[in-house]
Write a structure and sequence with these properties.
Largest sheet: 9 strands, antiparallel
Distance between the termini: 20 Å
Order of helices and strands: HEEEEEEEEE
Number of domains: 1
Number of helices: 1
Strand content: over 45%
Radius of gyration: 20 Å
Length: 185
C-alpha cells in the first residue's frame, strides 16, 4: 500500500506541476509515510465527525466529507487502517515562469453500501522568484505571486545551491494524502 500512496502523490504532483522543472537545476523530494490502526470512540452523524483513538491513546476528531455515503456503518468500536503520506518537492522551474499558486484535490470514496473508506489527496504548488541570494550565508530572498517576500536559510544538505541564480523560479509542491479503510472483523 505504501507504493500506492507514493504513486498517488507522484500522480498528483505530475498533474499540478504545470510546465515541469528544469532538468539541469537542483531539486529534491522529501516524503514521509505513516500507518496506524485506530479505534472509533464516538460518531456524530449530524456533525459528520468521527473521533478515533490511536494505539498510543491519543484521540483525534475527523470531519467526514459530505460525499461519504457510508457514515451510517461507522459505530464506536469500529477499527480503521489509516495511511498518511506527506511529500514536499522543491525544484527550479522553467526559465521565464512567473510566481503563482495552484491548488488541487481529489477524493475517492467507497460506494454506497461498500466498506467505509477512501482516499483524499490535496496538493498546493507555489512558484516564487529568487530576488536575492547570498551563497556564503546560504540565504535566498523569494518573492511570491502576491509580491510578498521572505528570506530563507538554505540547509547545508541542499547541494548545488551555487547553480541557483537571481531570477530563477523556485517551485514548492506540498502533497498530503490520507487513506482510510474500515477493518471488518
Amino acid at each position: 500500500m505504501k507504493r500506492f500512496l507514493f504513486a498517488l502523490a507522484a500522480a498528483s504532483l505530475g498533474l499540478t506541476a504545470s510546465g515541469g522543472y528544469a532538468d539541469d537545476k537542483p531539486g529534491a523530494v522529501l516524503t514521509e509515510v505513516a500507518e496506524a490502526v485506530v479505534t472509533v470512540t464516538a460518531v456524530d452523524q449530524q456533525a459528520r465527525t468521527v473521533t478515533v483513538q490511536g494505539e498510543d491513546g491519543q484521540q483525534a476528531t475527523i470531519k467526514v466529507p459530505d460525499q461519504a455515503q457510508n457514515l451510517d456503518q461507522v459505530q464506536p468500536g469500529a477499527r480503521f487502517l489509516l495511511r498518511y503520506l506527506q511529500s514536499v518537492a522543491v525544484f527550479i522551474g522553467p526559465a521565464g515562469a512567473t510566481p503563482s499558486v495552484e491548488t488541487g484535490s481529489s477524493m475517492q470514496l467507497a460506494e454506497k453500501g461498500a466498506t467505509p473508506g477512501g482516499v483524499i489527496t490535496e496538493v498546493v504548488q507555489v512558484q516564487a522568484r529568487v530576488d536575492a541570494i547570498d551563497y556564503n550565508e546560504r540565504t535566498v530572498v523569494l518573492t511570491g505571486p502576491e509580491g510578498n517576500s521572505v528570506k530563507l536559510k538554505v540547509d547545508d544538505s541542499v547541494k548545488r545551491l551555487n547553480e541557483v541564480s537571481v531570477g530563477d523560479i523556485v517551485v514548492v509542491a506540498y502533497t498530503q494524502a490520507l487513506a482510510a479503510e474500515m477493518i471488518r472483523k
